[in-house]
UniProtKB/TrEMBL annotation, chains A, B:
Cited SUPFAM superfamilies: Thiamin diphosphate-binding fold (THDP-binding), TK C-terminal domain-like
Protein name listed in UniProt: Transketolase
Domain Transketolase-like pyrimidine-binding: 317-486
InterPro entries in the record: THDP-binding, Transketo_C/PFOR_II, Transketolase-like_C_2, Transketolase-like_Pyr-bd, Transketolase_fam, Transketolase_N
Residue segments, region Disordered: 1-21, 238-259, 633-663
Amino acid sequence: MATSDSTRQGHQKKNERRSAQATAVLRMAGTVRQLLSETGHIPPASRALVELMCLPVTALWCRVLRFDPQAPTWPDRDRFLVPSASMLPLLDIMLSLTGSSGPYKTPQNTHTEIAPGPASYGIAAAAGMALGEQTLASRFGRSLINHRTWAVVQDTDLASGAATEVAQLAGQSGLDRLTLLVASLSDSPSPELITSLALFQASGWNIRKITAGDLSSVTSALAAALRSRKPTLIVCSPSPARKSSDEQNSLPPAELTGPWSLTARRGASARRSWLRRLVRHRQRSTFQREQMEQLPPLLSEDWLRTWRWHMRRSHDRSTKNASLVAFHTLAGLLPEIMCLSSSALPLPSDILTDHTLSPPENSTVICGSKAEGMSGLMIGLALHGGLLACCQAPLIAADRMMTALRMVAFMRRKVLLLLTENKLNQDCLSGGLLSAEQLPALRAIPHLAVFRPANVHETFQCWEAALRWKDGPCVLSLTPDENPDTPFPKSCFGSPSRGGYLLQHQHAPQVTLIASGSEVAIALEASHHLAKQEIRTAVVSLPCWKLFADQPETYRQKVLGGSGIRVGIEAASGFGWEQWLSPGGVFVDMNALNISAQTGTSYDRSGSIAEAVCEVVKHHLFASGMMRDSLPQAGLPSVDKNAESHSGKVIKQEWKTQQWQSK
Amino acid sequence: MATSDSTRQGHQKKNERRSAQATAVLRMAGTVRQLLSETGHIPPASRALVELMCLPVTALWCRVLRFDPQAPTWPDRDRFLVPSASMLPLLDIMLSLTGSSGPYKTPQNTHTEIAPGPASYGIAAAAGMALGEQTLASRFGRSLINHRTWAVVQDTDLASGAATEVAQLAGQSGLDRLTLLVASLSDSPSPELITSLALFQASGWNIRKITAGDLSSVTSALAAALRSRKPTLIVCSPSPARKSSDEQNSLPPAELTGPWSLTARRGASARRSWLRRLVRHRQRSTFQREQMEQLPPLLSEDWLRTWRWHMRRSHDRSTKNASLVAFHTLAGLLPEIMCLSSSALPLPSDILTDHTLSPPENSTVICGSKAEGMSGLMIGLALHGGLLACCQAPLIAADRMMTALRMVAFMRRKVLLLLTENKLNQDCLSGGLLSAEQLPALRAIPHLAVFRPANVHETFQCWEAALRWKDGPCVLSLTPDENPDTPFPKSCFGSPSRGGYLLQHQHAPQVTLIASGSEVAIALEASHHLAKQEIRTAVVSLPCWKLFADQPETYRQKVLGGSGIRVGIEAASGFGWEQWLSPGGVFVDMNALNISAQTGTSYDRSGSIAEAVCEVVKHHLFASGMMRDSLPQAGLPSVDKNAESHSGKVIKQEWKTQQWQSK
């Protein structure tokens, strides 16, 4: 009897406590609703959304969310994402009520984990953060890393490609600490929503449908999310009678310090014990270094040594291979590297035997053809902190990663993106799109540095420069094309780490050949041809435009040279090249570079291509009257007069259509 | 008894015929396999694929596919797509066996419906073609349009975002004449494939799994696809024992004219009867005009008249509104217009009342947030012929449509893309990405013309120029920002239809302000301010770079002006602007344009912004020694010295980060 009494009393106590918490939450929700009604300039559409999500979000913040208003940048805080601008007012009110200050736009207020953008990318970023949490937890244990990721989105956001791809990736790597709160305004689920839910379910997500107005169902859904072994999707639809919790007479915020301070106290104490654990943790220094995004001392020396040591064994001299070795050696030195890849990163066979160089299996996620989802995860990894995200994909997929790159660049986060170009002959013979054509689009993104190294030596220097680039993300565009056996000459002036340098120089050059990547070898070959015909040339390699543009005017002038015609050579569209070509300069693109490809023979970067470049150069020297030579023989690519622009002739990219129309 | 006898005989006959056809197909498959084994340079991975799909594709071509080798461009042919380069050898053999000549790379051989690219876009393009077929059939009836679309893809292609988005769109509009043959090499379906199939099923597709080696199941699957009321997906997996049909001793092609000529005869007779129906068809002339992609005579006159007539009633002077009216009036005149839109195209309220202007409901597909899938459908519509695809989306989504745009531009097909910019103040206040930043990436695509009209008048002229642009797709970038009430001055020299023109000109200008879109109004305002301070200015509007670059040098010189500083003004990254700025030119971007946004006040294009521009201009005039004025007062955007390039200073896009870091 006594026992049963005590149990009964226990139950009563529990019920009372629960009801007390419930009332607290409902009162909060009432206040939030009141504050919302007071805030002006919310468009009606988003107002409905915000009011729908009012109770679930309040319940989350009151009861579940792990955060400390005093320490907004606490590494082990729960991440709460509001990706779409329409729901930001709700977040704003939550922040003001928890005593966190600052408009949500600025990162000073780091409760705001992400800048508003396409909402589907918010979902992707949330998954990325959960992935980061998972990886760090496996390294440092749950004593240091033990938080969750929450995102508030709208049902229409689930249908877009980025979301569907990320849904599959999240299911694949079992991100059980990721929860999406989905606002669905329509009382009955739309066919689109049904489809999306089917996909999420099939990809291994928990789906729960709740009435946003009913506190008990909200609480149980949140509890289920905490228990779940899968990523969770909570669909919040409006209750048939919307009045559910409007009866709660809302009280002035002054009185609401009670429940909130409760929440805040919970967070603060959690953080204090976390700090105690951190002090005792044996990997503390590493953890702190990574959190502060500092590189270990003497990194570059060790890196360069190991890289050299491995490269001496490799016979494949392509920049792709050199960069692969650079990545693997770096991954050995930097445990914070997290790699997303469209395919497994193979080591060249002649190095594979070496077991000191183990690819970071544990921290590599293979994303297959889901380039957009991968780029979304990249955002999350970049924002989570304590990780250095490396992404590997074919350059042709860059278009699908552009939005994510823009967002990362806009938020000035650091990401390394390794893009592999197709072999040029492959491009030409398949008759499809040119991979290198994405380069201008990438270069146009502010704060994003694009590196296109020309040989093994440059590759490492570009890697290092990319690692030191503080302004935002970096892209390394690499080619599997083998370098010719003839090694490059030593740099006459400058170095690749300054973005551009003088590779070869004759006194008072009549022509300056400017190229990047595979095309530098062509430029060197062409300069030899021209030298035979007593035309003085200089050859400039331009691996990174942004770095080069940051150099002082004098340096740039000295590299590019004052006199003589400037000839740009790149297997891409000439857009943007005018800034390096003086008036009267020329841009030579696939039109000339693919003569051999058009004739069906495979693309070799010596021989025919270089000769074609020489013809173009001689043609323009003659036209500009700098050469009193006989007219160059026929067979050179015609200069499209229409493409003349006042700052340099640009030969339009005609080769494809020529090939296209040819029998 | 007699009856039963006759029926029995009938059955026998049928069985004999069926078996005869079966043997024919199997013999063909044998030959194809033999030819495949003879063709060299097929990478092993794709060889397995090709051999797997050998029998299904042969059966399709022998028994089902509707084509006439003599008339490869027959409008009512079945479309057969092989989007990925890896399976092209199979198509190649099919073509050679059907007596169609030419390598598959060139469009001379129009059996090849699409250039090789990302395979998921091949799926999307196939759906687009089926959509085109559906639309045209509803206009001209099944007597003229009665074909199907088939595509051969790999299971991994189904997972990518473009494919998932298109799967939903295809299901949504019930494209029952679309069939995908999916090659799945693994004997047991991978979890990824299972997920994709779940999505396709949920989006309303028929799924059939067959053994590629078993002819009967192949035939029944094809028959089911012909009967189906939904889009069909046929998953072809290898038979446990691969030897299924290798027993067929393969015969030399010489002997195989039998079955092929049968197929060819079937196609030829089908086409002959189609031609007879065409002659009798009452919409014959329209059909032929649209097929030849000719515009009706006097189109522009009628179009301009109706457009003017509607515009006089509209009070909203934004280019977005003007372009909406232009689109609706055009849709009234050109029935071949097919519209894909991310949202319903609303007419401005003051015109809506007018019932002569009905939006083309029947030929509009709402794609919601599925921008990538929409762009994929666009490819298909562009390739199908007889349709003019118009696509409408927010400019911020342009990134996700880039791949499709590249492909359409590469294949030189015509598409109209209407992209709506955000209101600038909206961009700034939401603190998110800038929509206008996509412009350089779009301008960098060869053969793609980007139009950015500045006012109502320019909008129509740009529309017309876009309609006449033969080189490839067109993009119109429009803004909902209202134009200021002060109307633009008449053009002093040139016209918008030439890509750029002189809007305002004072004798021997010291400064030429070059702008596009909303920024032209700022330039005009600034020129007024400068005029007050006795600085002579010219204002140039540059709605389309490609058109302007195609103008003769003399025209461009006269518009841009020889003397004086050139100042580019655009709310985007300055990448590529150097080609219009003479050495010493300046580019003014958001840094200056968003001073008001930073201070929180909403973006107005007169006042503060224009004054900021003036300050920049005066600063540079002074620096260049062309103005003996007092130093301009403080508060002007600082010129980032690092951003100097030898062909013009470019003020780097700093404002966002300023805003981002500001409290």
